[in-house]
Amino acid sequence: EKGGYDYFMLKEIAEQPKAVADTLLGRIDGSGSLTLDEVRIPPGVLREIDKVVIVACGTAFHAGMIAKYAIEHWTRLPCEVELASEFRYRDPILDAQTLVIAISQSGETMDTLMALRHAREQGSKVLAICNTNGSTIPRESDAVLYTHAGPEVAVASTKAFLTQLVACYLVALYLGQVRGTKGADEIRALIRDLSSIAGAVERVLGTMEPVRELARTLASKRTVLFLGRHVGYPVALEGALKLKELAYMHAEGFAAGELKHGPIALIEEDLPVVVVVPSPRGRSVLHDKIVSNIQEIRARGARTIVIAEEGDEAVVPYADHLVRIPATPTLLQPLVATVPLQVFACELATARGNDVDQPRNLAKSVTVE
Ligand code: F6R
Question: What are the record keywords, sorted (predicted)?
């Protein structure tokens, strides 16, 4: 049952604060450090790892792209992210020192399963990040970290995505912990930040009415573009994917730095462009660069929809629509920045008369290659 909501997707969006908190549950001990007992890959083996490779599809792939930033930053291990459907066909370099992370909500995605089988054949260890207990991908992996999002019924992934991100951050911190690249104090501080995210997501959800109103006014548009940078880039891709699959609109996500290398030619009068703005406190150079991007596209007549941290005043003059999100540490921003994009896509699709739980041509789990 939909618990009073018109669609499962709306219910699942609303469940995100709890889902995110549940992913952390039981994984932090009294002293504030991590206890990932489920990760049965012995610490000795994790210390020998010299590379991480993430394989996934669709939304889970976007979670993997974000995980790469955290893993490389917190562990200094090189990390690659690859679409599972491409992975085994290019003869990837894998060995016993490679940790492969397979991310899948359903645990049944054939592309991801074939990628992990290929990795295990090469002697790599596979850790699954999965939402469905006892599904095939965790059964065939060396270890599994369940996301505990609860069943996700709507075809478009929402709460599974946020919990995949939390699980990825936990794995990244755990690797930092066992390999000694992150000190106990730093880990404790980062876990505190992660623990505050459920409340931040709740606050975002409480401010979504203007986003819904805006989405309804854009129902007859043909194209929406999404721009982001650093961890905001995969968020832009995820926003575009949600809009494609639900609203059946042309939507594209770009890395904002690429704008000048081609996509800026697409900018025209009244084109809606959603921009995910990095925190002005963290990597402030990136923040300033994105503000100039917004300025550039607005000068060409685009309608700018700006997702920016509370207190970021620099964006105000260039935002036709401003969506505020709570301040978070740079790497964790996707957990709050994605939420308005889910709401936006859901509302726009509904305004176009689409069934957001059952988008055309799509299945919840894709068990063919
Ligand atoms: C998008 C979506 C799909 C899935 C993808 C992978 O909203 O739901 O892109 O993310 O098919 O599915 P899982 O995570 O079950 O492997």
Answer: Aminotransferase, Cytoplasm, Glutamine amidotransferase, Repeat, Transferase
